[in-house]
Amino acid sequence: MATATADAQVASPVICPHVGPSFLSKPAPTDSVYREDCTQCFDSIDDPTGLDLCLKCFNGGCTGDRDHAKLHSITRSHPLVLNIRRTRKVIVRDEPPLKMSKLAIAAETEADRYETTLTVKCLDCGIDNIDRFDPAVAPVVAAVMSANTFSRKEEVKAWEQELTSCEHILCLQQGEPRKIASQDLGHCSKCDLNENLWLCLECGNLGCGRAQFGGVNGNSHGLAHATEAKHGVAVKLGSITPEGTADVYCYTCDEERVDEDLAAHLANWGIILSERQKTEKSLTEMQIEQNLRWEFSMSSEDGKELTPLFGPGLTGLKNLGNSCYLASILQCLYDIPAFQKRYNGDVFFSDATDPAQDLETQLQKIGDGLLSGRYSKPDSDVTVSQHSAEVPYQKGLAPSMLKHLIGRGHDEFSTMRQQDAFELLQHLIKLITRSKHSLELGDPTKSMRFLMEQRLQCLHCKKVRYSTTEQDSIFIDVPLEKLPAAEGEETKYKLVSLKQCLDNVTMPEVVELKCPSCDSKDGFSKRTLFKTFPEFLVVNARKMAIVNWVPVKVDVPVIVDDKPFALDAYLSQGQQPDEEALPEDAPSTSNVPAFVPNAEAFAMLEGMGFPKVRAEKALHATGNNDANAAMEWLFAHLDDPDIDAPLVFGGAKADAGAAADPEKLAMLESMGFGGPRAVKALKETGGDVERAVEWLFSHLDDEGGEAEEEASADSEDKNVPVVGSRELPANFQLQSIVCHKGTSIHAGHYVAFIRKQLDGGQSWVLFNDEKVVKVVDVEEMKKFAYVYFFKRV
Fold first, then answer.
1. Catalytic residue (one of 166, 324, 458, 739)
2. Was 733 annotated as part of a binding site?
3. Cβ atoms 15, 129 nearer than 8 A
4. Residue 769: what pLDDT?
5. Contact assessment for residue 161 and residue 103, using Cβ atoms and an 8 Å cutoff
């Protein structure tokens, strides 16, 4: 790190008995050095007293009133620290920032921006002026100051996509060598497109790619060829450079890849690498351009910049590179009272050995940062001049440590790619629920939980079955009805109301099932309603259309009233006295309700390449009559852990075999759960290990014995519901929304709009990463929201 450094103006250096190998270490390349902000709060090296960096384990600790540095020193017996304090230089910015043109992040010259003061201290002895040029100290100081900081490593990963090869490339079998005529390389083999062309490295076929952001056309003929011929590996012709780089895509993996033998693979088709010239943007370049362009307006109708807001609950989050999905969800969650109570910004001292790697500590740190208002102030790096139109927004808090923990061990959230904000919300809820601190201090996600009750009635014998599931959100499939448009005009969709969407979710439907009581195949009437209502209702609006076999998000306006509205009509009344229940235990497996998929729709799905189990599940979930609806469901649930598990109908008890699976029992035992409790957890959750863990955490008093199970079954309907409330009226009002711009939920840009109490009364506030501004009209944004948070009022 190139910085202007200075020694603190203190008295002559003092000798400390702790100076030595026992209390000094140099960071290894894999070590994280937290020399920018405290691991327990967002106090940083820019504060008046600076930051103390532990010279043994490289933890960063604040030195102000909270003095997390001293706490760390005492608990870990690490007395020696390097105090780092920066003084910011004033920058007057009269020109817009340069356009980003490449993927790598250039190293900053901090000497042009900061004056950095370094002081070596011993917190045990109280010595504030240890000689930092001491032969034992100097190499350690130099090493920690030159090492990549934790946040810098995260920033670099944000733009450096680590691409790898795959088995389909390493084991590529090419056809007989031949030279493809130059005229055959000019357009798609199935259409006249002459750009966005992908060469199949297995057989030499040339097909156009999918349509891309920025007006790049495509009819997905390359994908169609890969599906039909089962040839997975292709290269984008226009991206090939003489140096050997190119866009290589494996359709089998559905991932961008690297081909180390690209030159040889191209030569098989008579294409000489050194003679090629790059003529089109690469996938990565288009992704960067797309993320830069998707922006929400930060100005009013008259063109004036919106005035930034500052104060408690009005703190922005810095974009770490494709992290707006995280920032928008965090802003909405920390607006919920249960989250504010649990992570309320009060002084929090972590008992974790490594605070940066402790989820509870980082959630508390975010709570302190967002709610306290201590960090909600204009960025002092920027000074507005009379010629500058720039508004001094906040610098924003960098949630690097929390993001790292959320993504740890997760295939998607551990990357720096843009992610689905709603999927992130569900993942974060699971992490918080499973935390041991949620058992001790209360689970803030409980305010989002409720019960849904499904009613099945045989159309022949009229017997019924009620089943209950606990949820923390609901999906609404938004109807897609295109409006008439002239040729060349942008496609627009008919307005729909939130009530229409809720009606669709809760309306009765007929499903093709065999009755376990009368053996009739007439089917069942199925309806799902709320059994209880939560304090905060989270709604995910799915607005997906299939274009060229690719799911694309479309902007369908959903009308949501700003005033409170009632959900009373969606409350289930439960089993009525005159209704006869279906038998819980069928005498034989032949009497277990059997799902018969629609033959035509099932054949279409199988013809598209979907496995039998997935096709059956999708048809069962979407009403068993529409192949397109089933395909959309499949695209939305590809990452479900049980996507390939056989479809089981009739509740958890119908899957007793799966519940007793020895391998699943062993997995639970390795997590510390064993005996009758583990058996019952698997039985209650249909053999799903992940759900079994959640069940165990929410049923700590259940010993798993048969007596307890029978007693629980006998009194199920008599007990008060664990989550949610059946009290009426059930009035809800929109409190916050996560909005998205872009054609894919895995790209584009996310922001949050939250209803806040400001000095002038209630107002909507836009949280666009670090920018926090008051907005006057949120009606247009409400129409195109992706996730809604409704508050019970």
1. 324
2. no
3. no
4. 92
5. yes
Confidence at 702, pLDDT banded by 50, 70, 90: low
The yes-or-no answer on residue 253 being catalytic is: no
- Does the annotation flag 212 for ligand binding? yes
pLDDT beyond 70 at 488:
no
Cα 160 to Cα 146, 279, 285, 508, 582, distances in angstroms: 20, 22, 12, 50, 58
CA dihedral 553, 559, 562, 563 (to 10 degrees): -140
- Is residue 17 pLDDT above 50, yes or no? yes
Supply the Cα-derived Rg of the chain in whole angstroms.
30
325: annotated binding-site residue?
A: no
Residues 588-635 pLDDT 10s:
333 334 567 777 778 778 777 788 888 888 887 776 767 777 887 787
Q: Specify the pLDDT at position 30.
A: 78
Q: What is the pLDDT of residues 117-157, one digit of tens each?
A: 999 999 999 999 899 999 999 999 999 998 878 876 665 55
The dihedrals phi and psi of 460, each to the nearest 5 degrees, come to -100, -55
559 contacts 497 by C-beta, under 8 angstroms? yes
Determine what percent of the chain is predicted with pLDDT higher than 90: 42
233-273 residue pLDDT tens: 999 988 888 878 888 999 998 888 999 999 999 999 988 88
pTM value surpassing 0.70: yes
Cα–Cα distance for residue pair 83/96, rounded to 1 Å = 35
Which residue type is seen at 413?
Answer: F
**Helix, coil or strand: residue 594:** coil
Average pLDDT, stretch 170-195? 85
- DSSP line for 745-778: TTSSEEEEEEEEEETTEEEEEEEETTEEEEES--
250 annotated to bind ligand = no
**CA–CA dist 214, 144 (Å, integer):** 43
Are 359 and 431 within 8 A, CB to CB?
A: yes
Told to judge if 749 belongs to the known catalytic residues of this protein, a careful annotator would answer: yes
Q: Report the relative pairing of strands 233-236 and 248-250 from DSSP bridges.
A: antiparallel
How far is C-alpha 269 from the chain's CA centre? 41
**Strand duo 536-542 + 474-477: pairing:** parallel
> Measured between alpha carbons, how far is 253 from 262 in angstroms, rounded to an integer?
18
Burial class (CB in 10 A: 0-12, 13-18, 19+), 327: buried
Residues 6+ apart with CB under 8 A from 595: 511, 512, 513, 616, 620, 624, 647, 649
